[in-house]
Amino acid sequence: MAKPITSITIVGGGTAGWLAATFLRTKLARKIKVTLVESPNVPTVGVGEATVPNMPATLREMGLDDQEFFRRCNASIKMGVMFRNWNVDHKGDFISYMNPFITPPMIDGMEAGYFYHAYGAGKRDFIQSFCPLIDLLEAWKCPLSLGGKEDPMPKVGYAYHLDAVKFAGMLAEVGRERGVTHILDDVDDIELDERGHVAALQLRERGRHDVEFVIDCTGFQGFLLQKALGEPFESYADYLGNDRAMALQIPHQDPSKIPAATSSTALGAGWSWSVPLFNRVGTGYVFSSTHRTDDQARDEFMAHLGDKAPEGAEPRVIPMRVGRTRRAWVKNCVALGLSGGFIEPLESTAIHMIDMGLRWLLMYFPSQDFDEATQNRYNQIVDSMYNEVRDFICLHYQLGNRTDDPYWIDARTQLKIPDRLAENLELWKHRLPGPLDLPTSFLFTHTTFQAVLLGKRVYEMGYGDGAFSRPYAMNEKSWREFLRKSAAHTRATVAYKGAHRTILLAL
Ligand code: FAD
């Protein structure tokens, strides 16, 4: 019988490394030793501050105290991503829309999106037609409340914004308290055994460190899986054109008004993120070096920020390698985080992918024989997750309609469209995205796709011929009645909920 794993070594002390160490230390049997080796010289990427709704559950599962998390990581609540200026309407005015963490309801057995497509919702957009999130955002409120009389809003999913450096620091402290062995040293070299497995790490100060099972969390360097084991990197540059980012931290303009959502504002050659934490805002510009030099992008980004940026502030440039390793797990090495791959952070998916990778690792935990069948299945699942995220990000560009900069035209005409997405884009001219259109929905369901199409108002702007196939009789009266109730519910919810900042202070 194959021998069980007795020790795991994680290389890298960024979000991926410490999330892996603390998660595995919490979940695995005590007899499995967890060691984390972290370079004192190579900095972490230091960004990655918006999450998706799995995060609250992950923290709870790790037994982390909510209050401590909010206080230490200057965390805030995220209801979704607000997209600004990605599309224009018939008058040439910019359109804003939200991608929320909430599923639209069914009306008379049919998805709300079909009613919205057929009858609209007056001045309210698709998301506003059925939920109060945008109205809460505009009132600087969030879906949590201080309690008291009956809350009109049923529980909805939400995510967190968090300070990346403080979050890794908190995970490190908890991990060490729970028994993770922490080594501060550089891995200079890797020793392979006769099977090509990683046998040992050569540490600069401590010398040889034996390895049984190793997790590569070395960031964009990909020191183990790519450099030592030679696993090829499959670039997504043909699908996604952005390859650089610049990041800056700025103060809140008015600290009493903290938006409970991430925002993504389209600029000339990419988009600017804004992640509002409790004490400051993390912002940046993701752009294409084919369309802007660093200096041009910097000027454009600083002009976008205007007086929001402090005097003399200089953004930090981060080259982005977009794509993924062909396999995430090779022999006795698994890559998690940036070392395994990265897709531009438009939907804040990277930490989620680390989280999912860890959960699947527990599900497909190896023994010392590292059988191929287990690895293959893990790799297939990770592959599907990358495809899902890549396709969803590509959708935002393919359905953009800006023509004011060659960047936006190139994004639609020069980049490749993944096959399944191309097929779906034809299909969705005739019907809204449906559950069977997507090979997987680990994170993005068909209704998330619907929210993008309807949010961008693509049908009003001539996508498809508008003649949807609708097998069910639709009763406009039911929709009008639904809209009336929904608007009343939104008003009651906005009146009831507390200010986001007040809630954060009370947590
Ligand atoms: P890193 O933080 O780079 O850590 C690498 C670690 O490896 C460091 O500790 C380093 O010291 C160590 N190391 C490297 N080489 C060696 C060596 N030879 N020996 C020992 N140690 C070594 N994700 C989200 O989920 N949401 C977001 O909103 C988001 N925004 C992003 C914005 C940008 C512009 C970018 C670039 C990324 C963003 N991400 C986001 C991704 C997110 O930042 C990363 O997934 C996350 O921080 C994990 O990084 P990491 O731990 O893999 O790598």
From TrEMBL:
GO terms for molecular function: monooxygenase activity; nucleotide binding. Its EC number is 1.14.19.9. SUPFAM superfamilies: FAD/NAD(P)-binding domain. The active site is at residue 78. It comes from the Bacteria. Keywords: FAD, Flavoprotein, Nucleotide-binding, Oxidoreductase. Signal peptide: none annotated. L-tryptophan binds at residue 347. 7-chloro-L-tryptophan binds at residue 78. InterPro entries: FAD/NAD-bd_sf, Flavin-dep_Halogenase_NPB, Flavin_halogenase, Trp_halogen. The keyword Flavoprotein applies. This is Flavin-dependent tryptophan halogenase RebH. It comes from Pelagimonas phthalicica.
